[in-house]
């Protein structure tokens, strides 16, 4: 789940460190290892099934095949992950792509080089089995559980209500992880959840998926999670950047060519999660095309993401100098990877 509003003070502080040269932003922590491989550090916000392309690339040896030895760190949040890049302790980060335009708003030079999650992977589940896909008015007069503002479930649901002119839809805030229990306790009719909670809802709680944001053509593709670095790094480490993106491209293709094997990798990465839940969550994400089929972040996916970010006033507008596709996405590495 994402918390999109970023502390302006902490972010600007990180950006100032980057601009001033503290932490050697863009010089990278890439180094040669004893094996002859180049060590590249990726800092992921959290460990999640949403980042399956990363784990597939590791498990299948795609990074090593490209001459890269990956050191994987976990920041604990999107802000911490990208701050590791700005501070020089990581070469790449994986989190919400909004950190790139936020960096430009603070004078930084963030850039996105690969997709990691390519759809707004949130689902509306409830006790009723009646789909609302073609009848969103059915939500009027209902209570919907979302995480507190400005989390992604709150943002998506608020935008859905506004765009469809829905009346008297009450959003009930609960802390992340307690959404399903709140519905079971009768606090609301529906809950907005991501995987694997969407699978837990249908498999363990007897709830039903009634609306899928990834399945709605008006929402997908959507730059939901991305591989982010700085322009300074890509310019000084073109070989390493291309190698890492090549590995992600191979992983994305593998997930769709070998879904059963992708499930197995997910299960091995999350041994404490019920294997059937992992299988359902990964399969569901593949069916919804939540994982990118290719590494490229398209202009359409970027526009959809920035539409929501602008709506919740997390950035300075849609298609501004700071939020434009040209400023934030370097598609050259992904395009080259797809051709290779």
From TrEMBL:
Record's GO cellular component terms: periplasmic space
Domain SsuA/THI5-like as annotated: residue spans: 52-262
Pfam families named among the record's database cross-references: NMT1
Compartments it resides in: Periplasm
Residues spanning the signal sequence: 1-24
PROSITE patterns: PROKAR_LIPOPROTEIN
Domain of life: Bacteria
Keywords assigned: Signal
Record InterPro entries: SsuA/THI5 (IPR015168)
Family recorded in the similarity comment: Belongs to the bacterial solute-binding protein SsuA/TauA family.
PANTHER family assigned: ALIPHATIC SULFONATES-BINDING PROTEIN-RELATED (PTHR30024), TAURINE-BINDING PERIPLASMIC PROTEIN (PTHR30024:SF47)
Stated name of the protein: ABC transporter substrate-binding protein
Species the sequence originates in: Bifidobacterium aquikefiri
